[in-house]
Structure formats: structure tokens, C-alpha cells
Automatic annotation (TrEMBL):
Keywords noted in UniProt: Methyltransferase, S-adenosyl-L-methionine, Transferase
One biological process term in Gene Ontology: methylation
Protein name: SAM-dependent methyltransferase
Family, similarity comment: Belongs to the tRNA methyltransferase O family.
PROSITE patterns hit by this protein: TSAA_2
SUPFAM superfamilies linked: YaeB-like (SSF118196)
An MF annotation (GO) of this entry: methyltransferase activity
CDD domains: UPF0066 (cd09281)
Domain TsaA-like: start-end pairs: 12-145
The organism of origin for this protein: Catenulispora yoronensis
Highest taxon of the lineage: Bacteria
Any Pfam family matching the protein: TrmO_N
Length: 170
């Protein structure tokens, strides 16, 4: 017996915002970038960060707040509209054109200063609302053989390449 999907809304409140010199969305060249995840100090205290300094990397869940909400593609299409790459479906993409506009990124924790988490190579721009920050546990990493599509490896070859525009947050 099939049931009709229920339209369900989930309301989320950002726990932090990104402070970065990078203000425009870019597809590549995140290498060497630094940013600050500024935790909302009206709801959280320094106690919420106790122990986080023991981790080298964080997993950050954020909202793609600058995305055109009408720019959704549910069908198969080539990544970055590159005709050299195969058309792949909605769930084979990790871009911002997703119905909930949620991004997930792993970054390196440089230091904690008060309620500011200084991070490297977080691929989110200035003002990005952060929905959650989790320490990266290597034990949660992939188990077994890891494989990726050739087009994805090719597409991401410059993703973390350094650029002259790589800037540190002030």
C-alpha cells in the first residue's frame, strides 16, 4: 500500500555564522582559506566548547543562504553544466541546488578564541548561517573500499587548490 508523502516543515535556528573575507560563492580554490565560526553567545557559553580543542577537524552543517531558491534541478544533468561529464541525478550532486539548501563541510580547527572557532578550508562564505558543528571522529569515516566517479575527481581537482584570493578572516 502506497501512502502520499506528507509535506513536513522543519524549522532550524542557526547556532553560529561564518566570518570570512570570501563574500562570493565560488566552485574552487578553497585551499589556504581561513574563516571564523562565531558561535551565538546569547544562547551558548564557553562551556559548550569545552573539549573541542582536542579535535583537529570539525564537520560543519550550514545553510546555503545565497542560493537562488528557484534554481533547483531534480533531474539528471552534468555537474557544473559541463557537457564533458555525464548527466547524473539529483542525489549524485553535492552542490547548493538542493531543496533544503544544506551544506556539509569538513575543515581544520586552528584555534578557539572565546566563542570564535578559527578554521581552515571551510567552503562557506561570509554570513553563512551555521546549523551545527561536530568534531570529526575518524571512526565515523568511510569503512571499506572508497570509490568515486571519474568526473567528480576531475571536477574537484582544484577545489582545495590555493589561490591568490585565499584570505584570512579578520
Amino acid at each position: 500500500m502506497e501512502t502520499e508523502p506528507v509535506a513536513e516543515q522543519i524549522v532550524m535556528t542557526p547556532i553560529a555564522h561564518i566570518i570570512s573575507d570570501i563574500t562570493e560563492v565560488t566552485d574552487d580554490y578553497w585551499g589556504g582559506t581561513e574563516a571564523i565560526i562565531r558561535i551565538d553567545d546569547e544562547r551558548f557559553t564557553s562551556e559548550s566548547l569545552v573539549g573541542l580543542e582536542d579535535f583537529s577537524h570539525l564537520e560543519v552543517v550550514f545553510h546555503f543562504h545565497l542560493t537562488d531558491k528557484n534554481d533547483l534541478h531534480f533531474g539528471a544533468r552534468p555537474a557544473r553544466n559541463n557537457p564533458a561529464w555525464p548527466a547524473t541525478g539529483y542525489f549524485a550532486h553535492r552542490n547548493m541546488r538542493k531543496i533544503n539548501w544544506i551544506g556539509v563541510s569538513r575543515c581544520r580547527l586552528i584555534k578557539i578564541d572565546g566563542m570564535d572557532l578559527h578554521v581552515a578550508e571551510l567552503d562557506a562564505v561570509d554570513g553563512t548561517p551555521v546549523l551545527d558543528v561536530k568534531p570529526w571522529f575518524p571512526e565515523f569515516g568511510p569503512r571499506g573500499e572508497v570509490r568515486s566517479a571519474t568526473w567528480a575527481t576531475e571536477m574537484l581537482s582544484d577545489y582545495f587548490a590555493p589561490t591568490d584570493n585565499a584570505a584570512s578572516a579578520e
